[in-house]
Amino acid sequence: MNSAFCYETNIGKIGIVENGSFITHVYFGESTPQDANITETPLLKKASKQLQEYLEGKRKIFNLPLAPKGTEFQEKVWRALQEIPYGKTYSYKDIAKSIGNIKASRAVGMANNKNPILIFIPCHRIIGTSGKLVGYAGGLDVKEKLLEMEAIF
């Protein structure tokens, strides 16, 4: 059974979901899956603590069990996103190149858009080839704030 809990952060409310062993989703706002128990488990507390530390500039690497579910291609992209170092940005093309498919920039963008574990899988570190900010589930203002916090923008 999934458990979920919402936390107040300096970028707004964030809901975190776990399946008993792994973090499976992060949501902006108070939305959580209808089938989830709304309870703060030890894993959710740990995730919240690491998220708060990150947002306070005290943490650069997350140490959490993550289990995003998607297609084989999406999961490959999400693994590549986790390799982007704190304080760096990559383009869709950079990720496409890193997964061995230079022509997959558009597909990388779609996979990035479907990332179910925002922030912990740092899709906010993806910018356009021109250096401009591109879409983000939490809004471009949140993306800009995260990048500024990492001293990228």
Low-confidence segments, given as residue ranges, are none
The structure class reads: alpha/beta
Shape: globular
Total strand count, please? 6
Q: Distance between termini?
A: 40 Å
**Sheet with most strands: strand arrangement:** 3-2-1-4
Instruction: Report the portion of residues in β strands.
Output: 15-25%
Number of domains: 2
List the secondary-structure elements in sequence, H or E. EEEEHHEHHEH
Per the CATH scheme, the topology name of the largest domain is Arc Repressor Mutant, subunit A
> What name goes with the CATH superfamily of the largest domain?
Winged helix-like DNA-binding domain superfamily/Winged helix DNA-binding domain
Instruction: Give helix % range.
Output: 25-40%
Rounded mean pLDDT is: 93
Largest sheet: 4 strands, mixed
Task: Give the count of helical stretches.
Answer: 5
Task: Please provide a written account of the structure.
This protein is 33% helix and 17% strand. It has five helices and six strands. The protein has helices at 42-55, 72-81, 92-98, 105-113, 140-149; strands spanning 3-9, 12-18, 23-28, 37-38, 90-91, 126-127. A hairpin with a 4-residue loop joins strand 2 (12-18) and strand 3 (23-28). It is globular. The model has no long low-confidence stretch (mean pLDDT 93).
